[in-house]
Design goal:
The protein has about 230 residues and is mainly β. The protein is built from two helices and 13 strands, in the order αβββββββββββαββ.
């Protein structure tokens, strides 16, 4: 059911904080230095973004509220104007209770819908959304449908989480709140075996691009993203 922009505003203007306990040192990373990072979202406007497949048109379904990109209505997935090959992405997200979204990377404008081409870092309320019951590879921080997170690291719905995605060639890492949750290689024997058992097996364009846009999924639920920074890797 479509919620009003007012409801979205009420949800996302209330900041909270939490601590993820029991993090294991071998899966934790030091905070990345700011060297080389650039802002992918200025916190004030939708400049640098467009709806997937609608480059040059006014953005629909997303708004800037309290310094965050908020899914505010039907409009479709939001993607960066720029494409990236190898990169490190830092992004904070907050999902509404029962919500579902995702962060796409190396997304192609030529494939519709976006998930036919782009791997998805899952953003989910693990406790309330029914997709969480469909398998561990649907939980927050997973590579959706392929690699489950090594542990649960997401904070409760309505609280901010900090994600980190590292992509260098075929090597990919997913991090959440300082914990490494997934580490895999696109095209490896393990990848190919998982792919053959997944819904992506009949889509040759899936994860085939070595350069593409960063995408934020419109799954019909309230979600907010902020402090989006990226740096290209040599």
């Amino acid at each position: 059911m479509q919620r009003s922009l007012l409801a979205a505003t009420m949800l996302f203007l209330c900041p909270t904080a939490a601590v993820v306990a029991g993090e294991v040192s071998r899966t934790r990373s030091a905070e990345p230095r700011d060297v080389g990072f650039e802002g992918l979202f200025d916190g004030r406007s939708l400049q640098g973004w467009h709806n997937h497949g609608r480059r040059g048109e006014p953005v629909r379904g997303w708004a800037v509220i309290d310094g965050a990109l908020v899914r505010s209505g039907d409009g479709g997935d939001l993607v960066s104007d720029r494409d990236y090959a190898d990169f490190e992405l830092l992004i904070e997200w907050k999902i509404a209770p029962g919500g579902n979204s995702g962060i796409f990377y190396r997304a192609s404008e030529n494939a519709q819908p976006i998930y036919r081409s782009a791997p998805e870092y899952q953003v989910l309320d693990d406790l309330r959304h029914p997709d969480a019951a469909n398998g561990p590879d649907r939980l927050a921080g997973a590579l959706y449908g392929l690699y489950a997170p090594s542990r649960k690291a997401a904070r409760p719905a309505g609280e901010w989480n900090r994600s980190r995605i590292l992509v260098r060639g075929d090597a990919v890492e997913h991090w959440l709140n300082g914990v490494k949750l997934a580490d895999f290689r696109i095209g490896s024997p393990d990848w190919n075996a998982r792919l053959a058992r997944s819904k992506f097996k009949d889509w040759p364009e899936f994860a085939a691009a070595r350069r593409g846009a960063i995408g934020l999924q419109d799954h019909g639920d309230e979600v907010a993203y902020r402090n989006i920074r990226i740096r290209a890797l040599p």
